Description:
- It is a single chain.
- With 160 residues, the protein is of the alpha+beta class.
- The chain has 2 helices and 4 strands.
- The strands form 2 sheets. Strands 1-4 form a two-stranded antiparallel ribbon. Strands 2-3 form a two-stranded antiparallel ribbon.
- The protein is elongated and about 110 Å long.
Amino acid sequence: MSHVYVLTNQHQQFLSKSNxxxxxxxxxxxxxxxxxxxxxxxxxxxxxRNVSLRIELLECPLDTxxxxxxxxxxxxxxxxxxxxxxxxxxxxxxxxxxxxQPGPSETPPEHNPEVDPAPAPEVEPxxxxxxxxxxxPGHSPEVPPEIQPDQPPESAIEQP
Length: 160
């Protein structure tokens, strides 16, 4: 293995092992692979996270420690802030609960019926009609019931 592939974007930044874009001066932190197909797959994955990037493969020779030697013309003129410095700045920024929070993007409604539902109006029930216990609903006392006690089943009766 005499060379590896690294990924660079249009801002002359390089993809690190932690999938962050760095300036490429610390070659031990760069994403690298000796297989071109693996580098192409990583390029597509990085491009799906940020579609505005124009990512290219850069073939780099290896130094004695097996780290990629990035050409000077591929490096940006100004180094990026180190990730450790930005982590320190974020830690010194204060507690997120103490920072001023932006107001909600939506204004609350004037009246939310789900929060304070109106009570249902009370309606007096209609009086139930009086029913004679011997009378069943749907039957009048003049009509005899269809089935008589001790009546034989219909299958036992001969049909003409």
